[in-house]
Amino acid sequence: MVYKYSPLTQKCQAYDYTIRLLHLLPALDEKTPLHCRLIEKGYNDHWSHAPHHDYHGLLYTWGDPVFPELLDVLSNSISHATESLGAIPITQNLHSALKHLRRKDTLVVLWVDAVCINQADVAERNSQVSNMPKIYKKAYSTIVWLGDESDIHDARLCMNFFRNLQRLSATPQEDQLSASWRKRFEINRLVTDFLDESKAAIVYFLERPWFRRRWIVQEVVLAKSVAIHCGAWNIDWNTFHLAMFELFESDQGVFTSDHRTTMRTMMGVRDGGPTITAIRNIGVAAKKQLPLDTLVEFSSFLCTDPRDRLYALYGVIKRWSPRQVTMQLSQINNVDYSLPTEKVFTNFATELMRIDAHDLRPMASKYWLVTHVLQLAAAFGDGSDGEGHLGGKIPSWVVDWTGSMCFEPLQHSPKDGVAFEAITSSGIQFLPTKENPSLLVMIGLPFDIITTTISLNTSPMLLTNTVHQAKASLNKFLAQVAGCAEGDWYQPTSEHLVAALATSLVANWDHTPDNSYFGQNPRFINDFLEQLRYQHYHLPEILHKWPAYVELMAITMRGRCLFLSAKGYVGIAATGVKAGDILSLLDNQSVPFVLRPEQAARYTVRRGKDGAVVVPDCFDYQPVRYSCDIAMLANEPSSYNSFRLVSDAYVHGLMKGEGLKKMKKDGDHLPLKVLPIY
Questions:
Q1: pLDDT of residue 257
Q2: Which neighbouring-strand residues pair with 452?
Q3: pTM for this one?
Q4: Among 110, 292, 367, 640, which is 20 to 30 Å from 68 by CA?
């Protein structure tokens, strides 16, 4: 008989919310079937006295939706204590975890999401998932279950190594200075011997599915204390953190990039950036991060339900983001599994773009949230026909969090201000209705058409000791450019074309890490350009002297290509851009964007009587009739030419307001357009 859940008590005067707790009954024989009781208990958000933490949170990997095992639920009534109310089907992994955690003579109280939430009740699931940050925060401790012992005994070998490393590293405070160098040699030898003898064990250990599970970010960050269990062994989080740190630092070619990503995320070594361990030890007030940065940081972590790409991080977003921002993000308090994924993603993008920029000033004096949303929407898509966006189910301006980032967004907060600002208050509308947005309407200036795209093979540039291969790749690339470009000089900035290309390929050094060669002294950039001039602009010939430039170019051009435009501009954008795409300046945004007309085949590059490039027709922006145009769009959106967002763009000589200055110099009237983006 399958257990039938009773509804949880709704919010009342006594408690703010209630949860079910799994009381795992003891058993002398480990072969005894699992028995438990499910007991409802109420909690308050704010405690007037010290709370009684009477349960442990359990973290594990759900895996495939196969439920071969049973958890028998007994009656809560004293008079019918042995009566079974039915069984709950559970996965093999959860069954193993409960077997290992069960005691012989004492009760174990747990909160386990798969059992304590009625997964078949969508309303309850919504409510309980919204409460999960509180549930893990109030738990006495959080138990991480990595799984059973493997055939190669990775649990035993790794856990013993972790404990030995912790014991060796635990030096009394007064002896740390005098013993530090001796301890360092001993630690190095211990790590080296372990990697030599147990390579397969640590590789298997790091490839356990739990380490890539998206929910762990919220669960581990919010937990009061964390214990890691694997098979019959367990360690605390600090011991685990120390091991990850030492293994990362002592890598002997054992680990892949995925292994190193796992270690880096777990223990806190990522250019000093926020990771799970660092965040666990930081105060709420000290840690501030905008929602999009949090989502991007953990975008590689996996989950079964695509809606959990957002839901699994709502608790962390709420904790880290400025209070003014989270107050405007109603969705982080409103988990709803009845909504389709595309609706969840679209609602979230809409809410972010509606946030008042003034609320971001305590964190960043110049930060364009709408720009960042649009950039990530392009970066997480496929950059071409939009099929990467959940099969085209969501608009191109909405971030598809189920994808992976194809390229890094260009610098979206340039020091000298926005790229284009034509009117005092940008008109951003979501149509056809606020409740069901599908069309983003912005004011902008479609000013040019892409005529040529040229790809650069950056693979040789990411390897060591392959300068000759990088030179060959760049030679081939520049030969293509030379065959397409006219003249030797770049008219928009009055510099040599190769100098403009060299600057464009690194996006004007905007992506230079602070600890890199070019980041150490601004003079080095001028030295590079001077040497390029003395070498008669033979860029490939100086690569061996500037490996820092090769590395920066490879980083910047990942997922991007060079383009040439009808007006003579050069720049870089996503590899998915193609001839006929439109370069556009959107009002109050910090970078240009590439848009694709809905009926692209109708449009070709042509010039008017004065030689100006004519771009696809769309209706003019007139303040006095803007509201009327919006109403017409809402009623008949298909009757107007609309665009698909393809990419952000670096356009050399058009990134810091130069475009607006030039256009105003030619005449006071700017031919602004109303641009519907679908």
A1: 83
A2: 564
A3: 0.86
A4: 110
In total, how many domains does the chain have?
A: 4
- Maximum mean pLDDT: which of 68-72, 185-189, 294-298: 68-72
- Do 127 and 168 reside in the same domain of the chain? no
Crossing angle for the helix pair 257-267 and 237-249, to the nearest 10 degrees: 140
Quick one: angle between helices 257-267 and 199-206, nearest 10? 70
Q: Which tops the pLDDT comparison, 170 or 400?
A: 400
DSSP output for 89-146: EE-HHHHHHHHHH--SSS-EEEE-HHHHS-TT-HHHHHHHHHHHHHHHHHSSEEEEE-
Residues 139 and 163 in one domain: no
DSSP β-bridge partners for residue 596: 644
- 570 found inside a domain: no
Counting residues of the chain whose pLDDT is more than 70, the rounded percentage is 82
Q: Are 265 and 189 within one domain? A: yes
| Interior angle at CA 76, CA 75 and CA 78, nearest 5 | 100
Which of the listed residues 556, 585, 611 is the one where a domain comes to its end?
A: 556
What is the overall mean pLDDT for the chain? 84
In this structure, are 79 and 114 located in the same domain? yes
φ, ψ of residue 339 to 5 degrees: the values are -85, 140
**8 Å CB contact between 370 and 351:** no
Strands 560-565 and 570-574 come out as: antiparallel
Does residue 642 belong to any structural domain of this protein?
no
Kindly state whether residues 465 and 371 are assigned to the same domain. Answer: no
Whether residue 20 contacts residue 105, with contact meaning beta carbons closer than 8 Å, is answered with no
